[in-house]
Amino acid sequence: MRVLGVDPGLTRCGVGVVEGVAGRPLTMIGVGVVRTPTDAELGDRLVAIERGMEQWLDEHSPDHVAVERVFAQHNVRTVMGTAQASAVAMLCAARRGIPVALHTPSEVKAAVTGSGRAEKAQVGAMVTRLLRLDAPPKPADAADALALAICHIWRAPAQNRLQQAVAAHRTPGASRTQPAPGISRTPGASRTPAASRTSRTLKGPTA
């Protein structure tokens, strides 16, 4: 599985590509940051992010895209920019038919470090260790993007099993109680145990 992790941001949008499967060593394919000038118009900045995302998608052809889920913060302006960059990343992936997953910061931290309250330095250190890098990726946005990709690779199998279970449960007409293998039920058949029915059938008239 090849995953493109995206740490959305209007000024710096971290991107990182990781390849591998859960339970085995992972490999970093690429890491970087898509930047936009702070003095540019909002529309132009979003176009720049779109072009940067398209380049990464063209170059690395990921199977999945993992984006950090945006949460409300005290700085509404920062949150708006992050949400707009996130939407652009999701749009680029959806346009190509690439599945998109959203992971919260605490989910990513817990997956990579074991603690949902880990500091950025801890996340960077663990990313460096897990991907066998010489040094933590800079800036922190790049390391966070790799952490998102790692998180998705490790969580995807469990999420897929959960989705399949939910889909099976919601299947229209599915019976909650399935008969034993090899036994079929005839509509309207008596619920009297088979042994009792047989004994009555074999019992002949009294002489």
TrEMBL record:
This is Crossover junction endodeoxyribonuclease RuvC. The active site is at 7, 68, 141. Binds 2 Mg(2+) ion per subunit. It catalyses: Endonucleolytic cleavage at a junction such as a reciprocal single-stranded crossover between two homologous DNA duplexes (Holliday junction). Pfam families: RuvC. Residues 187-201 have a biased composition (Polar residues). Homodimer which binds Holliday junction (HJ) DNA. The HJ becomes 2-fold symmetrical on binding to RuvC with unstacked arms; it has a different conformation from HJ DNA in complex with RuvA. In the full resolvosome a probable DNA-RuvA(4)-RuvB(12)-RuvC(2) complex forms which resolves the HJ. Residues 164-207 are annotated as: Disordered. The RuvA-RuvB-RuvC complex processes Holliday junction (HJ) DNA during genetic recombination and DNA repair. Endonuclease that resolves HJ intermediates. Cleaves cruciform DNA by making single-stranded nicks across the HJ at symmetrical positions within the homologous arms, yielding a 5'-phosphate and a 3'-hydroxyl group; requires a central core of homology in the junction. The consensus cleavage sequence is 5'-(A/T)TT(C/G)-3'. Cleavage occurs on the 3'-side of the TT dinucleotide at the point of strand exchange. Keywords: Cytoplasm, DNA damage, DNA recombination, DNA repair, DNA-binding, Endonuclease, Hydrolase, Magnesium, Metal-binding, Nuclease. Mg(2+) 2 binds at residue 68. The keyword Nucleus does not apply. Mg(2+) 1 binds at residues 7, 141. It is found in: Cytoplasm. It comes from Streptomyces arboris.
